[in-house]
Amino acid sequence: MSVKKKFVAGVVSGALLSFSAFAGEDALLKASDRAAIVQTLAIKLNANYIDPAVAERVGRAIAAKHADGGYASATSVKAFSTALATDLRELSGDKHFGAHVNDAFRERTGSNQAPTRAEMEEVRDWTTRRGYGIEKVERLPGNVGYIDLRGFGPTEFSGPAYTAAMGLMEGTEALILDLRRNGGGSPASVAYLMSHFFPLGDQRHLLDIYNRPENTTTQFWTVPTVALRYDRPVYVLTSARTFSGGEHCAYDFQAQKRGTLVGETTGGGSNPVTWFSAGHGIVVAVPTARATNPVTKTNWEHVGVKPDIAVPAAQALQMAHVAILRSLVSSAKDDKERKNLQRVLAMVEKGETEKPVYTLRGES
């Protein structure tokens, strides 16, 4: 199986886990069951977590807590998985760790790494029902484009939707890309979206991901076959909730000097995950890979992506819109256009919106 297909399988696994039924959450665990889960977890951590020293330290700390009776009150599968997720994040400092219950989960190893046709159709349905992660596409006053993007689904489904959304933005003077509630997803889909923001023929190397269990490095570049290109200014909105692939996208705009980031420092999670079974239906997300930006030679793990213009997330859209309008006012060559932009700017600065008119001209 190719490395790129393994990334697809990982994205599909994450999507399937996000909407699968958790039938065994209330199942009870004995002390011996918890001990077996802790032992299995330590083995999976040591073999797969991106930082072996941290994996060993975290595994020992969880085993010691169990030996001291620290998990005695976690008598159900759900309670134990919740406790493990909290401890994995706090002990490692890695926010990508997670754990929940899914009796149907099976690890993708060997010949079963590729998602089945039925799984792909299920993910396609899930992706389309959520608008490919595109929550809103709008033309704001002053002919400013706006896209609210909540996640990066599998590229084969989401890629055409990104191009369709960008097609509606083609005639705008500038674009605001809202990633404030973007929790991440496929790095290949981030690269596909980014491809719209560089001239044809200008191919950019965006990210390298080293996978520890596979001992492989995958490069992510802009996609030369993306035909629609957008050459106007871009403002990217961020928040403390922007995470993982959402951060990757914001980081790319900043590192490639293609956009201005407005908002808050992001969540600080750059290590991609693989899902593993710890037993008794508990599924653990273990960060198995490390992302490296080829421009900065580092990533946003622990530190987040810092905005160029720091404002509370709730004010980021207004701030970006005002900045764009001020630039448009200063560059306007036509007096009528300038006066209209000044009117719109004054309105946006006050936080006001134009009221719709539903009567014909001349009617009272």
Automatic annotation (TrEMBL):
CDD domains from the xrefs?
Answer: Peptidase_S41_IRBP (cd07563)
| A GO molecular-function annotation | serine-type peptidase activity
**Does this entry carry the keyword NAD?**
no
SMART domains referenced in this protein's UniProt entry, alphabetically: TSPc
- Keyword set includes Signal: yes
**InterPro entries, per database record:** ClpP/crotonase-like_dom_sf, Tail-specific_protease
Q: Per the database record, which ranges form the Tail specific protease domain?
A: 116-312
Coiled coil segments of this chain? none
What is one GO biological process annotated to this record?
Answer: proteolysis
Q: Which residues form the signal peptide?
A: 1-23
Specify the protein name.
Tail specific protease domain-containing protein
